[in-house]
Amino acid sequence: KSDQIRIEQVRDLQRFLAVGTHRGGLRVIVLHPADAMNVSTQNAVLKSLEEPPPDTLFLLVTSFPHRLRPTIRSRCQGIAVPIPDHDQAARWLEDQRIENPESLLALAGGAPLSAMRLSETEPVRRRLIAQLREPRFDPVAVTEHCLGAEPGEVVAWLQRWVYDLLSLRLTGRLRYHLADEQGVRATAARCDPVRAVALLHRLAKARSLAQHPLNPRLFFEDLLIQYQGLIVGGNR
Known about the structure:
The chain is mainly α and about 240 residues long. The chain contains 12 helices and 2 strands; from the N terminus they run H-E-H-E-H-H-H-H-H-H-H-H-H-H. The protein has a two-stranded parallel sheet.
């Protein structure tokens, strides 16, 4: 398993494209998520997009089209796929036997497939959030808990949590943690909004670094110490 679509995979794809289609039908190539291609991989795909073999369609699926190079985007037809109706998404999650679909949908910003993925790590996330409510939590101990999840996932959890702390202080509304309003409210009361904004900027940078090789232990400890500074020394 890799976080990137590697250039070796594109070379295998090119060998596949050299073979004729089955019974002369259409051939569909799906790149998902397309933003997982690095620059070298995108350059390798570019030629196939410019001169696709006969009866071949490319589908590049991404939630972050801006991460694709302009030369890639200019050779594609953009089709926006909106988030489905909330009730429809909730019913679909219930059909998949997902527990707490409403809560997960809120955490996923209304996206049902993201909510399904979140359900796989929900016990880890819940325990982390419970620890983040305690001002005197031990960053080293919480880091041990975080090591059971992908760095990018943990940073996304922290981003949503801090966003709701800030949103509750400034607007009185929650976006993600609708099922935990009491816990968010108690924690938000200790936060300085200015520090919360600064931490959100720091987490955004950390999100981009999470895909690179790093020491997860030091990475998590640094973020958790900064978060603890928000809720311990926050509201003055």
